[in-house]
């Protein structure tokens, strides 16, 4: 399956695994209330500007540095109902950007790996505090 990505005013076709690279390759406006995300809409992947998610109680918001591409992620495109809009992806690595109430020991600035609750193919993702793990440095 190919993905179309706007790149400096032109549209380029990529394989599905490349869509995440396209998302993170462009310039980023970290100070805004919006973020870019890969959105699955009617079976097609699109890069859209959407509001940053806000963490609720027991959640953290993570600035995504890496997201995995698993078979289940691209299989969603063939099985999603018409009109469905979602951000695919679950596994991610990044840095905690914001914490909700009762987020346990997690603090802004910690490097983590996590399982996202609402998709990880985005600049920011939300994860439950109990689905976040400290990212250790390799020996």
How do you describe this structure in short?
This protein has 139 residues and is mainly beta. The chain has helices at 19-25, 71-79; strands at 2-7, 10-15, 34-41, 44-51, 59-67, 85-86, 91-99, 111-116, 124-134.
Question: Which descriptors apply to this entry?
Answer:
139 residues; mainly beta; Quinone Oxidoreductase, Chain A, domain 1; four-stranded antiparallel beta barrel; three-stranded antiparallel β-sheet; 9 strands; 12% helix; globular
Q: What is the chain-wise order of helices and strands? A: EEHEEEHEEEE
CATH architecture name? Alpha-Beta Complex
CATH superfamily: Medium-chain alcohol dehydrogenases, catalytic domain
The total tally of domains equals 1
**Roughly what fraction of the amino acids lie in strands?**
over 45%
Largest sheet: 4 strands, antiparallel, barrel
How confident overall, as mean pLDDT?
81
Contiguous low-pLDDT stretches (5 residues minimum) are: 6-14, 24-29
Radius of gyration: 15 Å
Give the proportion of residues in helices.
10-25%
Shape: globular
Instruction: Report the count of strand segments.
Output: 9
Level-1 CATH class name: Alpha Beta
Output the strand order for the largest sheet.
Answer: 5-7-8-9
* Helix count from the secondary structure assignment: 2
In whole angstroms, how far apart are the ends? 38 Å
């Amino acid at each position: 399956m190919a993905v179309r990505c706007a790149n400096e005013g032109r549209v380029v076709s990529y394989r599905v695994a490349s869509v995440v690279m396209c998302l993170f390759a462009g310039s980023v406006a970290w100070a805004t209330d919006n973020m870019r995300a890969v959105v699955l809409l009617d079976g097609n992947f699109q890069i859209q500007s959407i509001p940053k998610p806000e963490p609720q109680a027991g959640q953290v918001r993570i600035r995504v540095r890496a997201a995995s591409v698993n078979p289940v992620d691209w299989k969603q495109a063939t099985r999603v109902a018409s009109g469905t809009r979602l951000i695919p992806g679950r596994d991610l690595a990044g840095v905690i950007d914001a914490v909700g109430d009762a987020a346990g020991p997690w603090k802004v600035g910690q490097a983590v790996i996590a399982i996202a609750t609402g998709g990880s193919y985005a600049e920011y993702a939300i994860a439950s505090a109990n689905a976040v793990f400290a990212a250790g440095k390799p020996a």
